[in-house]
Sequence to fold (741 residues):
Amino acid sequence: MKKKSFLSLMLVLMISVLAACGGGGGMPNPNAATGTDTKTDTATDNKTEPAAGTDTGSSNVTLKMFQFKVEIADAMEKLLAEYKKETGVNITIETVGGGADYGAALKAKFASGDEPDIFNNGGYNEAQLWKDRMEDLSDQPWVADLTDNVKDPMTIDGKLYGMPMNIEGYGFLYNKALFEKAGITELPTTLTELRAAAQKLKDAGITPFENGYQEWWVIGQHLVNDAYAKQDDPDKFIADWRAGKTSVADNKIFNEWINLVDLTMEFSNDRPLTTDYNTQMTEFASGMAAMTQQGNWTQVQIDGIDPELQVGVLPMPINDDEKLNDNIFVGVPNNWVVNKNSPNKEEAKKFLNWMVTSETGKKYTVEEFKFIPALKSITYEPDQLGTIAASIQEYVQADKTLGWQWPKLPDGTNQEFGALMQAYVAKKITKEELFKQMDETVLKLAQK
Amino acid sequence: MAGRKRWVNLFMQSVFLGPSLLFFVIVVIIPFFLGMYYSFTDWNGVAITVNWVGARNFAAMFADAKFWTSFWFTIRFTVAVVILTNVIAFALALLLVQPLKSRNLLRTLFFIPNVIGGLLLGFIWQFIFIRGFAAVGKATGLGFFKLEWLGTEATGFWGIVIVFVWQAAGYMMIIYIAGLMNVDRSLIEAAEIDGAGYGQKLRFITLPLVMPAVTVCLFLSMSNAFKMFDLNLALTRGGPFGSTESLALNIYTEAFTNSNYGLGTAKALLFFVIVALVSSLQVWFTKRREVQS
Fold:
């Protein structure tokens, strides 16, 4: 008898274990932060949800947002709280930073069935990859307000699948005070002038370049883009390259561009291959080097170290053709997209629209996110965004910009190029080997 | 009556083993066979359509030079790590079974690295190698610290080895300590009476008797070294210039960065076969050397 009751107790226990598992994966429960994922709970718990029970019930929808821009994570929480106040719609946000990691995490989310309603997409190649999962946003009210060219990355067969997050630009950031100290009055726009400026800086005892070459995206993506973007027809070049119809070994632009790479190494900081993004920005912002290849997204970090630092953007010249070289690289880093299979996709679209059309949303875009907006309807003063954005704005207005071409390359190419470029600057492989391996990498990754 | 007892036994077994078996099937067996299926497809990890491509992924895998570079790195790494971890762990264990006052404290200290996750450890050590070592090098002028840590192939390799050994040695040490404590004192005393020196006692009495612990430690360190991923990702991310990319990281990159899920699972399948083969060979081999006291 005793044994029997023991057995039935065990049975009950087992069933309860099973039942508990079954319940976890089922209904999406609003307000309940599921313990399994790394939600940024700090703000959700403290601010956005004063009391989970007091939800007015005006809307039982909870949207899930999964985004990659770490810099705006905190401000985004605040914006979502404002949205909840205005509409009653609750949006939870999760942030996973970094290019490849975000992609992997997003794939894992979709594979596990925990699909977000709103997520990010980098466009071009990535847009092709996620095409099956994205809602067509061509009919949205904000589409008409988009600035020129920002639609391209997310346009497939004439349909727009994403809302550009913002516009970003990069080149060589330079420290105006250090340039002055070295006696550089004319800003360099050609390779010869850049070399002369670097020499002047070196003579003045200032490290000319702070190279963050530990980061694959600095060396393998942004730096190499200089060579794609200066082709006569970048689209045709990349298409031919992927098809094996052209090689960089006999490409004039690539052969000139490599001189710029050599120049940055000749006048480099110590140990560029173990300088990561953080070190790069810390050393640049504290005046340890005069130039660094980065963009306006670094403003937040720079402000954290020296808010008074005067920074401008220089082009990245590969030869002495002034017209070709006096350009910086401007593009759309990422886009908001809506999950096509989400039951709440209409709510998700409403939120995206609110984010760029409401006064609150506009204010956050400029003042909190420090974004250069991708919509004409969002107006701002250049100094609201910091000195780098102001400098980029000048290039944009003078039409001295070139595009971001790397998203058009096959998946994984940019990471592989990072490794190849590291081997080149460490003198493990020659220029010829570098070019040959670049060709091979693109060909290999292009064939699926 | 006997039939009823058998039934009860069966029931008891399913109550106790059922839940864990169920979870094992859900999180290991099913994904394993799904992975097998995907290795014959061109799935990119996202698309809704999945096409059967036969053995194409396996052909691509054998033609992939980077995969074999990673393979070679993983083998070199495993050899270095297995030897160093076990030698150090055994030495520590020998030291810490002596009647030292700080024995328990030291055991805890050596074990601590094990409770820190590999990712975190990787980032901490990255800082130590790049910033810490550089600062020490500047202050002391010692050549060892002045190397460009993690910036060259050799320092990248040894950097991971150092951290891995540092982390794993404490765990293996505990297993060795347990083994050493179980060695029958009377055998050692008998050897002493027969006039055996320290080295002889260690070699002919202690070592054969702790062979079960050696089997376990070799198995654990070998399979862990083979499967190393988080430390690799956090510490070097395969760099500099892809020279420290482990097999696991190569598979991850293939599946998630290159969006070749099919090829990634094909690699993972081969990876599984190799790990299983090497581990069972090693266990079979060391098992034969175990003795009974």
Observations:
- Residues 70 and 247 of chain B are 5 Å apart (CA to CA).
- The first helix of chain B runs from residue 2 to 38.
- Chain B touches chain A through 38 residues (CB under 8 Å).
